[in-house]
Design goal:
about 10% helix; 31 strands
């Protein structure tokens, strides 16, 4: 994608501002040094890329009943839970009960900050089984180009979401391991004009791989022309037979970050690893060095919006969070344990948000952190993380819990959770715009309702509590009969304006396990940014 001179100038300003923060963050890191725990030494190895032939499809690929059954079977073998968390004594759980006035109801319009949808789309299932009921869409955009992944395909729009073409990940790349299935993620880096596409492959007795693909520039993305690197279990030094599951992507100023859980052949969690690679090397499209760190915490979730330092987090217990930090200019991974308000342990299968037909989309909930964010303002940097907790301890339904910290000293600030007394909130994805405001996506269900997809904003127009202004995008009219729902949910800053947000979600229109999921998206923000939408979108 070619940026205008004005936009190039804006990018340069952002980078200069970012460079000023190195000194500040360096001072913060120094102040933390006495309490930091340093993880294992990093490992590195280099890979050369492989290139794909260009090409996109005008219609979604057709699938057979046997293919549907095969894919659904493998969907049940990924996104595996980790070990149980140490729990707080039952007598202390009342401390986690919701405070009066914190209930999240619905849209909270403000003038001139009225909540706006500028475009929403919902891609129809082309044939039974073309999309999984565990749909998990992810997306990135480069101006009018929108790239959206979902179980089990990928869609591409070159006109801002008005019309779509498709890419089949099963045939786009060479066969590997046990085949492709199923986790994918899309993420756009405007600083190097790279659209990333991450794909997970099925475990075999010798392991599996993550395929990190990218399209460089508007022309290559529109043509479906990618190059990719295969991060196999062996390449990452994870031992014969261990395999990779539940990957996440994030960006700092200079690196692509990837986190992933490692399981053994008995599907017992072994460790979680952090991988990073230079954006400059990836942009060059040649041999690239990948560096990784092994950790002993389950599901390390990176923040979105990172700059000179990447932050990641995982739970130690229901009262303690471990925050990891890794500066762009360093190979030292440090961790810091922080006390947070107690919450109710949520092992897989313990949460309930029953729909009118008796299904339970909350059955797959567990305690892993779903998303995180980093923002910086005149008052300093802030870090936050979100995860879903089952009903109990004063919460009548599952809710999205959170913890927010000041970057300086990683001091705990508050708990901007999302809950309602009449239905469940579950799963959440966040993104950060250029103002340092946070966009969010989440689902609701239960209390006589089917799943609904919402998006919201935490910004200077909100009154707290609650901090989130939320609005419904699409309603489901049914729920999957397998008691499932997808926990990959993404919100990104809308490029290149970086003021609005673009988010991915889905809805379901029948109880079948496949064939009724509609991968969807929306561009949203405040009325004040109407001009940036009109300027950058081709209608």
């Amino acid at each position: 994608m070619i940026l205008s001179p004005r936009w190039r100038k804006r990018c340069m300003v952002v980078l200069v501002i970012g460079s000023v923060g190195v000194t500040v963050d360096g001072a913060i890191q120094s102040a933390w040094s006495q309490e930091a725990q340093t993880s294992s030494a990093p490992h590195s190895a280099s890979l050369a890329p492989t290139r794909t032939a260009p090409g996109v499809l005008s219609e979604p690929p057709q699938v057979s009943a046997a293919e549907i059954a095969w894919r659904e079977a493998h969907m049940k073998r990924v996104n595996l839970p980790g070990p149980p968390l140490p729990e707080a004594p039952a007598a202390t759980l009342a401390a986690g009960a919701p405070a009066p006035g914190t209930e999240t109801g619905g849209p909270q319009p403000n003038v001139p900050g009225t909540f706006r949808f500028w475009r929403a789309w919902s891609n129809s299932p082309a044939n039974a089984g073309s999309e999984s009921a565990i749909n998990e869409p992810s997306l990135g955009n480069a101006g009018r180009l929108i790239f959206e992944t979902y179980n089990w395909y990928t869609a591409l729009s070159t006109n801002g979401g008005v019309t779509w073409s498709f890419i089949n990940p099963y045939t786009k790349f060479p066969a590997a391991d046990g085949g492709f299935c199923c986790d994918q993620e899309a993420l756009y880096d405007p600083s190097r004009d790279l659209m990333f596409w991450l794909l997970q492959y099925i475990k075999t007795p010798t392991g599996n791989r993550l395929r990190v693909a990218m399209a460089r520039g508007e022309t290559n993305l529109a043509a479906g022309s990618f190059y990719y690197y295969d991060l196999t279990t062996a390449f990452l030094g994870q031992g014969t037979g261990n395999w990779l599951d539940y990957p996440h992507l994030a960006l700092s100023n200079n690196f692509l970050y990837l986190t992933v859980n490692v399981f053994n052949q008995s599907d017992v969690w072994v460790r979680t690893i952090i991988v990073r690679a230079s954006l400059d090397q990836l942009r060059a499209g040649g041999t690239t060095t990948f560096t990784w760190w092994n950790t002993s915490n389950f599901t390390l979730t990176p923040v979105q919006g990172a700059r000179e330092v990447m932050y990641l987090a995982s739970h130690n217990s229901t009262t303690s969070l471990r925050i990891f930090s890794l500066a762009d200019g360093s190979a030292t991974l440090s961790s810091f344990d922080r006390a947070i308000p107690v919450w109710t342990s949520t092992p897989r299968g313990s949460a309930t948000c029953t729909t009118p037909d008796g299904n339970n989309p909350c059955a797959r909930l567990d305690h892993r952190i779903n998303s995180g964010w980093y923002t910086r303002s005149a008052s300093g940097g802030e870090i936050g993380f979100l995860w879903t907790v089952r009903e109990g301890s004063g919460f009548p339904f599952p809710y999205v819990n959170s913890a927010r910290f000041r970057e300086s000293g990683l001091t705990y600030l508050n708990r901007p959770f999302i809950w309602n007394s009449s239905f469940a909130w579950f799963y959440a994805g966040v993104g950060v715009n250029d103002r340092g405001h946070v966009g969010i996506g989440s689902f609701t269900s239960g209390g006589g309702t089917y799943p609904r997809w919402w998006v919201g904003i935490d910004d200077d127009y909100n009154v707290a509590p609650p901090p989130w202004a939320m609005s419904t995008v699409y309603n489901s009219t049914d729920a999957p009969d397998a008691d499932v729902w997808g926990d990959y949910l993404r919100v990104r800053p809308f490029h290149p304006s970086m003021l609005n947000f673009i988010g991915s979600g889905y809805r379901v229109t029948c109880g079948a396990s496949s064939g009724c999921a509609w991968p969807s998206g929306v561009v949203f923000g405040r009325e004040r940014d109407q001009g940036s939408w009109e300027r950058w979108n081709l209608k």
